[in-house]
Each structure stands twice: as structure tokens, then as C-alpha cells.
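During the reporting period, our protein records have gained a C-alpha cell line. A sample record is set out beneath this paragraph:
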Amino acid sequence: MATYVDGPVRVTVPATSANLGPGFDALGLALSLRDELEAEVTASGIEVEVTGEGAADVPRDASHLVVRSMHAAFDAMDARPPGLRLTCRNVIPHSRGLGSSSAAIVAGVALARALVAGGRLLLDDAALLRIAADIEGHPDNVAPALLGGFVICGREAGEWYAVPSAVDPRVRAEVFVPSTPVATEVARGLLPATVPHADAAANSGRAALLVAALAGRPEHLLVATRDYLHQEQREPAMPDSLALVHRLRADGIPAVISGAGPTVLALVGAGRRDLTDLTPPGWTHHVLDVEARGVVVAD
């Protein structure tokens, strides 16, 4: 029978941006917006308290994504507790392409492992990645949320993989967040079933260049973030976002749709001015660091 730790466990988990232009479902970056969560085992029932982003929309029962993710990890440890109390303080915008669902999933599996005595012996980080990516369906947000930094990820022979890669300290991220969300399912539904071979080849080259550009050659970021496979195809769902991407790129700023959108991400090197004045009316703007830390269990 499982033994649980006394008292609550606290974790923080970062926002993430997936794709980064050409790295569709393969590249992800952790950003310095962090949700804070706290959970403890109780005698019975499910209690969920949520403040901040998404508080008006998310469920307060066992269907909450964090709770579902916790249960998946508990089941993997054969350690389903009798009850749970969960508190979420959300900072990451919901349905904006900044990894809010992946943050919830990663926080959930990390909380569950931390609540079980000896949990790290039962579930290592590779197991957490497997559970989280299975829930999400792809690894490009959950991997950087778990590991931090810039991560190259995918699936091979039925197993998920995630390989961290270097990021030049001169690179910062600026995000432009519109007031209107776009569901990931809607954005993915606009993608074509097939793509031209030439476009696939062009994207492969850009994605490879992006790894080198982020690692130490940020002068190549504009070319390296050019996408051929998914951004323009999603324009019907987020025309204002694509218009901003085009304006920024025409000004030499490496801008992309963050994840499934509609947030716009700009990867900016040293010496570039703050882009606040380019924020469209009604949008919010954040200057962020690339977050080296993934999910963290607080002391």
C-alpha cells in the first residue's frame, strides 16, 4: 500500500511555446511565466480551487486537467489516494498557444510523484514525459514544461524522446497575446492532410538552422523561423495574429505563431529595442526570458 507525504506539496511550472515556426510538433521553448500549484492527500473527495487565468472556465472536480493528470501518475505508481485537495494559481493565459494545458499536465504528474513517498524511485523523468505526452498527444509543450529551456522532441519506435539544446543568453522572447482565444482543436483542424515535398524540405532546413541559431547564431533567427507547413494554413482562425507576424517579419523581427496560436512570439537578440509599441490595441505584451527551469517542486 502506498505511503503519502504529510502536508501539501507545491510546484511551479513554466509557460511554453511550441513549433517556433518550422519545428511543428518537434521544438519547444520554456518561458518565464509560471503557474503555481499546491496539492495534498485527503481522506476523501476532490477539492479544487483556482484563481487567475481560466478561473471562470475550468471544472472544480475530478475532470480538472491537473487532477486527471495526477490520477494518471498515481495509477502508474499503483498509488491512487483516497482524496485530493488542489489549489491552482494560474498566470499562463488559457487557449492562447502558451502551453497552459501542458503546464497543467506536467504540474499534475509532478505533484502526484512528489506526494508519494519514494515517488522518484517509481517514476523517473522519462516516465513523467511518457505519461504527460500520452495525455497531451504530442511532446513539444510538455517536454520544455518538464525539462525547461529549448527542447527537441518527438516519437521513435513507440517511445517519446526529448533532448535539451542550448540557448544563447542574448536571446529573449516577447509575446503578444490577443484577447480572443483559439482552441487547439480548431487550429489543428485547418491543417492539410498532405504538403508539397518542396515545402517539407524547406521546413526541415529551417528547423535545423533554428537549432544552430538559438544555440549561438541569433543573427540567423529571421530565416530560421520561416515556416511553410502550418502558420499560413491557420490564418482563417487568427487573421490578426498572422497580420502581426507579417508586420514584424517585414521589419526584420523573427516572429512566429506561438504553438497553435493565437499568441505571437518574437525571438529577439541582444541590442533589439523593446517591442511594446508594436502591441495591437486590446492585446497584452510580455517581455520574457527563456526559462532554464522546468517544473520545480518547491521546498
Observations:
- The longest strand covers residues 23-42.
